[in-house]
Design brief:
Length: 230
Amino acid sequence: MKFGIVVFPGSNCDHDCYHAAQHVLEQDAEFIWHKEKQISGVDCIILPGGFSYGDYLRTGAIAKFSPVMSAVRDFAAQGGLVIGICNGFQILLESGLLPGAMKRNDSLKFICKDTYLKVENSSSPFTNLLEEGEVLRIPIAHADGNYYADDETLKQLNRNRRIVFRYSDSNGHADDASNPNGSRENIAGIINEKGNVLGMMPHPERCIEDLLGNTDGRRILNSIVDHFGQ
């Protein structure tokens, strides 16, 4: 399969995602510049982490106006797989491809550390190689990762099993102590109604090789490859 990694001014995890797709997963990959108005020949689009447009105004608030985002919306509407990681998740929220918004971390500080994630839905294209209830160790690196949605939206997300990952402890217990940023209901990742668009704050591309001491992220990315193979 082929991954397309969108590059915005200020992206800084684009090459990490390219390395993960091309060299670790051994799949084709290409960069897609933010000014492109059409996307073709790719099977999964990655919106990488970083600081698109310097995070001016709000995280992702300017990136949603990039020409490429119209093409990303069309790609998603046609059933194409889209994964937004960290700043990519923020862009998906600002673009309306996922519900909710991001606020500043409760601590008002930038947080960069490993977190534990409980898998809440293993039937998505992004988690089909995982088991519900299992715990992954995936790093975060953000200042605005505090996911917010109103009560009705949260009910819909829970009812339709659209919450894919929750922050938890190493045993899978999700509580305030295991919530690094204040996200409502410990939410770390969600999907859209069709299930083909995932937004997640943690960085799976940063834990994909034995050299890094952790390969839990590879299982998320390999799930995408497995889904495409099916």
